[in-house]
Every structure is written in C-alpha cells, then in structure tokens.
Amino acid sequence: MSKVVEISPTTRHEGHSKLVLKVNDAGIIETGNWCSITPVRGVEKLAVGKTPEQVPKIASRVCGICPIAHTLAATTAMEASIKCEIPNDALMLRHILQLANRLHSIALHDILILPDFYIPGTEVKINPFTPEEPVRTVAKRIQRLREIGQTIGQIAAGDCIHPRNTKVGGMYRNVSAQAKTKMYDLAKEGLTLAHAQAEFMIAVIRAYHKRDFVDVGGMKVPLPKDLGFHDQGYLATHAFYGASSMDENPGWDLRRFQEARPWDWYMGEMTVDLEEPRYPIGGTTKAGTKTNPQMEACTGIPMYDGQPVEVGPRARLVTYKNFDEKGTQGQNVAREMEYQDCLYEMIDCLDELNPSGKVMADYIPNGDGSLGWASNEAPRGTDVHLARVKDWKVQYFSMLVPTTWNFATCSKALTGAPWQLAEVIMRGYDPCVSCATHMIVLDEDNKLVAQKLIQ
Amino acid sequence: MLHSAIVIVGCGNPLFGDDGFGPAVIEEMQKLSLPDNVTIQDGGAGAPHFIFNFLNPEVTRKLIVVDIADFNAKPGSISRISGKDLKPGAYIDPHSWDGVDQLCRIRDQIDTTVVLCQPSKVLKKGDADVEMGLSEDVANAIPKAIQVILKEIGVDYGTTRQCVQEERRRGTAETCGCNETR
User: Fold this and answer.
1) Does CATH place domain A3-451 in 3.20.20.80?
2) What is the residue extent of each domain of chain B?
3) Residue A274 to residue B171: CA distance in whole angstroms
4) CATH assignment of B6-156?
5) What value of ipTM does the predicted structure carry?
6) In this complex, is the C-beta atom of B87 within 8 Å of any C-beta atom belonging to chain A?
7) Chain A residues closer than 8 Å to B102 by CB
8) What is the 3-state secondary structure (H, E, C) of A154-179?
9) A62, A158, A255, B157: which has the fewest C-beta neighbours closer than 10 Å?
C-alpha cells in the first residue's frame, strides 16, 4: 500500500520548496511532486507602466542568485519588442558577462552538491568546508573560479551582482584595451582551473553512481542505475547565450508553449503517513500532517509541445553537442562539462571584442506595442522573458524561468527512485526556486485563467 | 577580484519595501567621492553568495555591511554593531544563509561592522507583498547611515551628525563622534 512522505523544506538550493512523495512498501517513489512554496512575487504586475530601462532592474531583483540572467533576458526582451538591434561589441560584452555568470554559478553548485558525494575510494562524504586535504584544495579552486567569474563580470558589466553597464540599446560603455587584456588573462587562468575542477567533479559523480548503496542520514539506501531518468524531452535555445523574437531562426517558438494550472497537475490533499526522523536535516514532516501540493504549489506548469521539458546544461548539451547521458549523473556531468565551454567561448568573445567599437545602437525606437520575447540560457536553463513596449512604457511583461520548467520534469524523474534520494535528483537541476515562483497562467487564447496570491 | 582595503556592502531587496535600505544607501554613496581603497557594492538579495569574494584578508582590513533589522527601536533608527558581537547561525541552505555565520568566521581577520536600520514594517521570511520604495522614516535614515559609515571608514566631509549638532550649538564645524542609536 502506498504511503506519503514529505520533505519540507528541501535544502542546499535557492528558495523554498518541498517534495511530496507517494511511495510503495519498499520506499520506491510511485508519484513524486516537487513544488515551490516560495510566495509569489507579482513582478509582472509591478512592471506594467514602467519604462523599459526600469523593468530589467526590477526583474533582476526577483532572485538573489540570478540577477545577471534576468537583467540580460529582460533587456533583450525590451529590445525585441521595440525592435532594436544592438552593436556587435555590445553583444560580445553581454556574452562575456553571461559566461562569467555561468562560470560562477557552476562553481557555487559544486559547493551545494559536494556533500552528497563521497571522496572516491572511501566511505567519507565530502564536506566542502573542511580544512583538511584533499577537499581544501578543491574548495580553494572553486573559490578562485568564483572569483574569476565575478571579476570578469565586474569588468564587463560594471558590477558582478546587479550589472550596471547593460542598457536597452546596448551597453553604457565599452571596456578599455587593458581591461580586455585583464579579462583574457583571467579567462586563461580559469581555463586551467576549470579543466582540473571538471575532472575532479566528474570522477566524484561517476564514483557515486557506481555505488550499489549510499548512506542518507544513517540509512543504507540502494542506488538505482537509472536515478533521475525521464522521457520528457529537452529545451534549449542556444548553446550558451540565448535567442530572441528578432532572430531569423529563433530557437524558441511561443506558439508551442502552453501552461497548465498546478491544481490540474499536482496531487490533491493527502495525509503524511511515513515519517523518518533520521532524514537530514531534522527529519521528514511528521506523520498526520495534511499536505496539498495542488493548492500549495506557487508555480504554473509550463509545457512545450504539450509536455513539461527539461532545461539546463544537459538540455543544452543534448541539443547542441550530441550529449546522450541520462539521469542525475548525466545532468551533473553535463554541468561540469560546461565549465571549460564557458571559458573557451569567453576567449573567443574576447578575441572578437573591439574595445574601440561602439556599444550603443544609433537609434532606439519607443516601441509600437509589439510582443517581443528573449530567452537567456541561464546556468539553470532557458529563461524566457516576454514584453510589450509602447511609447517607451511597458504594457506587458512576463518571466518564464528555468526552474519553473524543471519542477514538472523533475517530478516525473522522481518515479522509481528510493524516496531518500529525491533531493539528490532535485539538486541535479540546480534549482532556483524564488525565480520560478510566478503564477499567471494563460490559456491557448492568451486569456488569463489563473492568478494566485498576487491580488 | 579587484580587492580593496575597505568594502561596504548594502544588502536587501528593493522589491520588498524597507528591505531595499542597503542598496539605497549604496546608491547614494555612489554619488560621493570616496578614496580609491574603498569598494561600495550593492549586494542585493543574494549578498551572502557574492560578497565574500570581495574580501581578501591580505588586502581587506574593514568590512561594513548595511542592512535592516528589527531591534525594537523607532522606525528609521540606526544601530551599529561590531562583528565581534554577532552570534553564529546555522547553515542549512543558501536561502537560510543570512551571512551572519560567515561574518563570524571572518571577523577575527577583517574588522567587521554591521550598520542596521529599523524598518517601519518588520519583514518575515516568506512575506509575499511586493512593494517598491522605502517608507519615509527609513528613507530619511539614509543620510544618517552614510554619516555613520563615513565616520567608520575615517572619511570626514565635515558633515557627521554630531558635527551638525555641534555646529548648531556653537556655530563651529568641529568633527566629533557620532551618537547613533545602539
């Protein structure tokens, strides 16, 4: 007979979410629901009536981790709506910023997932904060990679947290020749470190997935070889940057996108009847607690071609590099493989960047109310922003962010895994839950069918 | 990273009313002419993930964090706490990573000060209301906070708060200590 176990809140990712799992007698997940419980921000409403300059700045505050991805996606969406093409050197600076952000984010994710894994050849789980070797060297390398990413972002965009240099129509200013050289030097240093770090992480990830059993809070849990497998398909719009409605052959099609309401998709009210106090950190939810993913989930269910899809590093590698590894292992390996790609691409962009070139479009239209969209391949996946700008005022704005896509896909991927490993599967998606929490659901006719907690 | 001797970081999210105090102080400070060895940084909502890369114990000697906190005072009151008085928290996940734990780890190497403002409405984790803009009391506290920070980093434009009070009293512009609420 099925039992219900709830892990709330989930840990080692950004935002608040929970896992509600229906499991069989052997503890294997029959149906898994992973849902956001971060309250809805309502940024889409706040944006209406603001100028196209203000909205990217507002969008960048939705989340503490992804300001760069949201700034770039929102700025490009504004440009797509007003139909403004930016100069190539401005685009190169944005590409460099994007890649610096990705480099930093992969390194941060390494810290978050390392405690799940073992030092290869031992039964010791990795504590990234330990002062002991060999982990200390790895932690220092991760830290240096983060520093390199942030410094390059700081040089290219004026600020590495909330970039100040981006502007609708291009960039405020180009970098100097010396700054370009500095970024180049940092990228070369980063490349060596990224190779070493990716090799280390891939070895650790593979060693983990070769195990028959893993330890979770003192419980010996069998590790299935198909951990995190799903058949949902992938979505990626570019290998590293993004696409927009102005592209000749855009990588995303608005007409293929639909959104379902969470109460049509998630499980209804249930009572938790399996409790495990040993589960880290602090045990699972107490037996007898009522749980209702349908009503508690704070996100819509986005679908591409009628089904939820996976976005993120593996989706990019599958789409553009013939990567074929599935499951949580494939996902984590793909993310590590993007380390070097980031820096090789960054070096190419630096080669192409002309510090004397112009970085602002000659003419910036005020907008005629056309719908424009832009996707940004954020570290966690495809971040699509949609905008309608008329007479230099935003009439409509919407954000469709990576983890929103992944909620439903990951929920499917939980099936067949021991419930104790549900968080391991979830962390493979590098979730950023705060960003994901938006609740404006449109139907096929673009009519608003659901709007929760905003009013 | 381009490290500085003094790092000033404003933390908070302008989408949540008074929580935007830290970034608002930084925005104002960007208008000032500060020494080259000072970095001012809008840390946003994810400051604990980002700001520690700005610190290098070999170069950085002072860190000032600007934020809001409920310390049962009148809205807009400014409090200054030394890093040595902070109590370590627990690391559970990045969202609960409020930075205090890390500040406690570095306070012996870098002189750390936290400048706090009492908000008009106390925000709890999970509050959903998006409301841009600071309340009047908190917006009025920005100059006061800047004066406290400038005094802390030893920059004196002759405008510290007590200095203004002294000036009113005695007609002089003598620089002196600041009596911020503690």
Assistant:
1) no
2) 6-156
3) 74
4) 3.40.50.1450
5) 0.70
6) no
7) none
8) HHHHCCCCCCCCEECCEECCCCCHHH
9) A255
